[in-house]
Every structure is written in C-alpha cells, then in structure tokens.
Amino acid sequence: MNILRLPKLLYSCVAFCCCQALTVSLSAQQQKADTARTYSIPEVTVAEAYHTREVRAMAPTQVFSKEELKSLNVLQVSDAVKHFAGVTVKDYGGIGGLKTVSLRSLGAEHTAVGYDGITISDCQTGQIDIGRFSLDNVDRLSLSNGQSDNIFQPARFFASAGILNIQTLTPQFKDNRRTNLSASFKTGSWGLVNPSLLLEQKLSRKWVLSANGEWMSADGHYPFTLHYGEDNDLTSREKRKNTEVKNLRAEAGLFGNFSDTEQWRLKAYYYQSSRGLPNATTYYYDYSSQHLWDKNVFVQSQYKKEFSRQWVFQSSAKWNWSYQRYLDPDTPNSKGKTENSYYQQEYYLSASVLYRMLDNLSFSLSTDGSINTMNANLNEFAQPTRYSWLTAFAGKYMNDWLTISASALATIINEDVKEGGSAGNHRKLTPYISASFKPFYHEEFRIRFFYKDIFRLPSFNDLYYQEVGNTKLRPENARQYNVGLTYSKNVCPFLPYLSATIDAYYNKVTDKIIAYPTKNLAVWSMRNLGEVEIKGIDATGSLSLQPWERIRINLSGNYTYQQALDITNSDPTTEAGRTYKHQIAYTPRVSGSGQAGIETPWINFSYSFLFSGKRYVQNENIAENSMEGYSDHSISISRSFHILKTHTSVSVEVLNIANKNYEIVKNFPMPGRSVRATLNIRY
Taking Cα atoms as reference points, which of 275, 281, 273 lies closest to residue 240? Predict the structure, then answer.
C-alpha cells in the first residue's frame, strides 16, 4: 500500500491543518494592531518540585516526571506503567513482547492512550501495545482514573474509563541559545543497542523546530529454567528463542509560539518494528518461528487561541496509517504457512471551546469526528468503516474548599462494511461527576469522589474476524465509583514534603465481550456473556528528606488490593457457573511497587521494586491454574558532570538483581538479571 496516495478525506485533513496555519497567521497579524490589550493565560503547566497536583485531583491521578522516570530503571513506557497503583500490565516477556495495560481490571480496551494530547487508536484490537513507546523523549507520563480534572480537552478524553497520557519534550532554550543537541547511547545484556539523537532549533522568536530519532535492537536470548512434567520436578537451563527485535522511531515537531495566548504545534511521527514472537515454554517444546512487522505513520496538528478572558478555542487534526504483517512459516496447511497483512487508517478532527462565566465557574464544549477504516488480505474480509462523532459538554466550579466537575458525553457511531453484514449503529449518552472537598483551610487534606458510566465499542476483530467475529455484539459497559482521601504537607526543612492518598473503588462491567465455544466446541465466537464485579483499594505515599542542603532522599511507593470477581452465572450446574465469584484471570489480589533515591552533588543512587501476589491463568481458581507471586528489584548509579560546553551523564543499572525468571503471563518467562549502561551528552 502506497501511503503517499492519500484519499480525498486525507486532503481534507491536510486542508484543515492548512486552515489552522492560515488562522494562526491572520491572528498573529491582527494581534500586532492590538498590542494594548493584555490577556491572562488560561492554563499554565508549572514545574513543581513535588506533585501536589496528584493530591488536589478530584479523580485519582498519578504522574511521573522525566527525572522520576530516570530513577525507575525503566526503558519503555510499559516498564514505567507497572509502577502505577491499580494497573495490570500483560507482558509476554523481553523487549519485543506485546504489552497492554488494564486499569483496575476493566480491561486494556477501556484504557485510552494519549500522545501529546491526542489519543492513539487501534480499531482492530481495541487495545494499544504500549511496549512500542520509548521513554527517551518523554517529558511526563500521567495516568488518570475516570478522567482528568481538565475539562478543556478533546471529547475522546471523556470517552474511556482511564487515560494514560504520554507528553513528549517541548524545546526550552537557556542563555540565549538557539540550538540544543542531545545524544544518548544505551547498551546492555541480551545484545541491546539503543542510540538516539535529539535536535532542537530556534528558527525565530516565534518558531521552533524539533527532530529526534531512535534505533533499538536486541537479540533477547536470555536464559531461563524450563520445567518438565506436571509436577515441574525436572528442569533444564535453556535460552529464549525467536526473540530478536529491531525498532526505528523518528519524530519531527514544529512549534509556533505567537504570544502567551496563541500557540500552534505540528508533529510528524514514524515507527517501524520487526520482531520475533517467542512461543510459550511448555514441557519439551519452546521452538517458535512466528514473526511480526509493524509500521505506523501519523501527522497531527494542534492550535490554541485565547480570544479574551472568557473565551478560549482549541482544535486538533490527525491522520494515522498503520500496517501489520504476521507470518507463521510452519502452519500445517496447503500453503505451508500463514501470512496475514492488516491496514488501518484514521482521519480525525476535533474542536473545543472554553467559556469562563465567572472566575470560579467555567464550561466547555468539545466535538470530535473520526473515520476509521481497515483492510486485510483475508478472503471475504468485511473491510469495515467506522464513523464516530463524539460531543462532550462539561462544567467545573471551584473555590477555596470545594471543587466539583460534571460532564455528559454523547456518542454517535455508524458502521459500514463492503462484505457481509454490518454491526449497525450506536447512540449513547454517558455521564460523569466528580468532587473534592477541603474541610480544613490550613491543611492540604481533601476528600474526593467520582462516578462515571462509560462503554467501549467492540473492536473490528470482535465483530468481523473470520468465524470468530460476531456482528450482533453490544458495547461493553462499565460503571465506576471512587471515594478517596488525600493529604500533603511541608513538615519542616528536614522533611520538606510528605503526601499520601488512599482510594476505595467499585467497578461493575456488564455485557463483557468474551470468547465462548459454540455447540460443536471446535469453533469459538465472541459473545456478550461476561459480568465482572471489582472492589479494591489503591494507596500511594511519598516523602522527601533533606538532611543536608545539597543532599536529598526521595521515598515513594504504592499498594493495591483488588477483588475482581466473575459474576456472570451463579448456576453451579453450568460450565460458566464453575467460575462464579472467582478472581478473573491474571489479576492479583495484592500488588505494589516502591522507589528510593539519593541525590547528591557527586553521584545519584536509586532502587526500585515491583511485587505481585498469586494469580490464576484461568477464571477457574483451582490449584492447577495458580501462578506464584513475584518480586523484581533493580538498582542504578548515575553521575553528571560538565565537559567544556556539554552536560554529560553516565548511568549503570542492574535489573532484576535476584535473577528470577518470574512469569507475568503463563509460560512466558521474564528476563533474569541483566545490566544496562547509558551515556548521554547534551550540548
């Protein structure tokens, strides 16, 4: 498929970006004649030494800054997300393994992933592989349950049960510099080679250009223990096979900062990967020859303008193209192989307006339109097209002791296919409300609450994939309730910051989409047969110690208790009844993480750990389905220094220092002990 042959709608998308640029130019010219007027900035991101935003939020929000990500001993976004409370990451092992994130057991399909304020979509599977995102150019990583406190955002950010937002670096120039150049090189165990380069150039007072690229390759042939027999009493040391991975990422951004009240941003993104798909390590067999190729290209534009104190406007546009090729050269069929190719395209437009009625009362209206198409080389493939229109109306009121927000999202979906039957159309209105109370004026102690009713559409695979798909599927619904307490305090110079949050939540998923065997048992089909009830507690805490002026100790951690029960069928005489009120697969009752760091003028030291309790690989909680819990401990040492006009940093990490081949997904062992070294030079 030639991505340069863009259809008419893409030209419309490009034209919209051009209109944004024209609007920017005209507004800039108009502003020159109106220099006497001064406007306040509607919303400013302030760099804080400590994350007080997490304590003030009405819905649970967790944030990692760039500096905090460095201390976590992580390479990819998927590694960092494991350190958030209430998160389950399915990880099939190694750098190239598929990694998806589920928030509070609602499923990966209910978690939206945003990239610089615009969501990433995958209508084929409904879930995003977060293992493809590097942390090399990430400035901030945030996770919000329900939705964030910001009501001035695209309608898509209202349309999920949780949001993982990836914010990339914005160019910053010091000492009248016009050029920033940064290069890094990572290497380590299992053949890791990971160079990257970042260039930031100030073109004029208003225009800035940024470009960065990254290459990563690894063989992934780490050793593990292979168990034989039902009792696993016989073992042998083997190496993982078919784990090679090669990734290339390139991005370019153009920033137009015309004034404090007007900004424009354009980004082009390219990603490709080639990776082997390792097999499950069962009994005497761990051979695999399957391979997966991915390509993704998108161009997105964002424009924001504050016309007055009362009115603010922003718009976004995006074109996205993705390709995936899967090959199994050992399939026992007439062709002797299975080779499938999938193509997706998306055209997306968004516009939002914010109206400040009073100093403490504001309203927003957002509307998004998108078209998603998919094609494949499969016989009689449906070739679906999904037309989506989302409109969100939201309001927010805040004073010294109360913050309250509410929104309603209207969703209209139309669907067409070229082959076979269509899944039909959907219309739905979903509400959200949240509140935060501060009962004591001089204490940063808050009580918060939120409720959200949301749904997720069946993916194209759920609806149209060969014999498995079912076009009669209904949307999967989720209701979320959360009540929590937050507290932070500057205790004394020795203890400048202390914070803690605890949230109890209740989620209920109905019409859950699951694979279910048909009458002949040889063919499976997707059905709305599932119902899950989830109760849990998330607790987080952090503190900073300042024993001396130039030495700081940072400690943080989180703990999650989660009871996610299958309540689909209570009849014990049925097969489904055997799992009634059993914990759903791959969801531990207890999990958590912790971090400790020491910052000095000479050297920085950090330690991080993850732990997870016992899980089950099937919904039936019996001994043979049980998986042991695990813990993972990592340490790192880093040093920064100046050489001439460059800032240089060196770090060495030892990962999984206990050398445990634990499993997150059954029979997919994680790497044991490994070493990673990083050299970064910034000019």
Answer: 281
